[in-house]
Amino acid sequence: MSSTPPEPTDRKVTTHALRRMKEAGQKIAALTAYDQVMAGLLDEAGVDVILVGDSVATVVQGLDTTVNVTMDHMLYHASMVTRGVSRALVVGDLPFMSYQVNTDTALMNAGRMGKEANVEAGKMEGGSSICPTVERLVEVGIPVMGHLGLTPQSIHKFGTYRVRATEPEEAEELRRDALALQEAGAFALVLEKIPSGLGEEIARSLEIPVIGIGAGGGCDGQILVSHDMLGLYTRFHPRFVRRYAEVADVMRGAFEGYVRDVRSDEFPSNDESY
């Protein structure tokens, strides 16, 4: 029997399908999107999971952190993304203070993401402290993706974006939190900016898929912010980001060409006029 993992198909990606991909050893490819055009391109390219990330704060809104993103912002962007997707699983970030207050608030906001924006799952940052909320959401039928390691919504607590869980005590806490989230019913887990060995260890120890971002190649899949990997957002370049294009340079060149042609009266030409 061949051990070659199955190739991506046109079949709809579901939470169950992700578990089967892990079991088959097929890596999960995930990226972020914030509008219909980008989401459609990702879906056509075969991306398995599209995250409507609260990273929209930095790469689209021009903010310094993700803390200021509101629930209305996320609903607006998520509703655009879902209109562009037919195959990928769409996950919506629940923004800061949309789920930390209490379980009822979290249930209401996660429900809005599903009903108003048509996302298929919600993502929340945090470990054991949010497990009762995860359990409640899963109980009513809302799939939850967890997020551990560097959790950007807690940047004011951390005070830095440095690698997390490098010390034994924090690494052990992360292991406990990962297992707790699985037991609470999370269907997948994102691990951000932790040592690669720890990422591989946790991926092997859990039954649910573990998707890394700066957590090494031993995870069950990878996610990047699309604007980062496209070279579109250039304010910083994390070590874990591989740039697959330099779109900012292409766009800048196109805009400069347009300005040049308008000012020289080369655009529009007769063929471009009525």
Task: Please give a handful of descriptors for the protein shown.
274 residues; alpha/beta; TIM Barrel; globular
Question: Topology of this structure?
Answer:
Elements (H helix, E strand, L loop, with lengths): L14 H10 L3 E5 L3 H9 L4 E4 L3 H4 L11 H13 L5 E5 L9 H15 L3 E5 L5 H9 L4 E6 L5 H4 L9 H17 L3 E5 L3 H10 L4 E4 L7 E4 L1 H4 L17 H17 L11
Helix pairs in contact: 2-4, 4-5, 5-6
Describe this structure in words.
The chain has 274 residues and is α/β, with parallel strands linked by helices. It has two domains: 15-243, TIM Barrel, CATH 3.20.20; 247-274. It is built from eleven helices and eight strands. It has helices at 15-24, 36-44, 56-59, 71-83, 103-117, 131-139, 155-158, 168-184, 196-205, 226-229, 247-263; strands spanning 28-32, 49-52, 89-93, 121-125, 144-149, 188-192, 210-213, 221-224. The chain has an eight-stranded parallel beta barrel, surrounded by seven helices. Helix 5 (103-117) crosses helix 6. The longest helix has 17 residues, at 168-184. The radius of gyration is 20 Å and the shape is globular.
End-to-end gap = 64 Å
Cα gyration radius (Å): 20 Å
For this structure, the CATH topology of the largest domain is: TIM Barrel
How many domain regions? 2
Provide the β-strand percentage band.
5-15%
CATH superfamily of the largest domain: Phosphoenolpyruvate-binding domains
Low-confidence stretches: 1-6
Counted by DSSP, the helix tally is 11
Strand order of the largest sheet: 1-2-3-4-5-6-7-8
